[in-house]
Amino acid sequence: MGYRDRGVRTASAKLKLERMMFNKRRTEATSRAMERRQRENEAPRLKQRITKLSELRLDIEERIGNGPSVASRHIRRIVVEHAPAIFVIPCSESRCNDGGHDLTSEIMRALSSEATEFRGEDPCYGHVGSTGSGSCGRVLHYQAHAKYD
Ligand SMILES: [Zn+2]
Description:
3 helices, two-stranded antiparallel ribbon, flat, single chain, 149 residues, 2 domains
């Protein structure tokens, strides 16, 4: 192993590092998605916890701060038979790091009491920008509709 080899190796390591930096954001997003899937796979099934639950739908709106403007809106229909007992909704702001909403405990609590209509909100504590100084500021509002046997 001579100096020349080491030079080549360093250059390729540098290139590799640059490529890694370039892919860092995407890789982080991918690994977050993988972690989420893993958590979902390992979580108990919703139907085991809330045996009477037959239908669940979440109407989700993300607002910017406390203002009225809606940044994103979607409906999540839960496949009760197969869904995990976990409700983690990623932040829809594409520049947001470490954000998202873990609604698991409050939704499970409401379902345990067989609530048919309930709502809640959760601010995102993620941050935007490369310095990580700007907070995301998105606030998720949800309205849940549940049916029981
Ligand atoms: Zn966010």
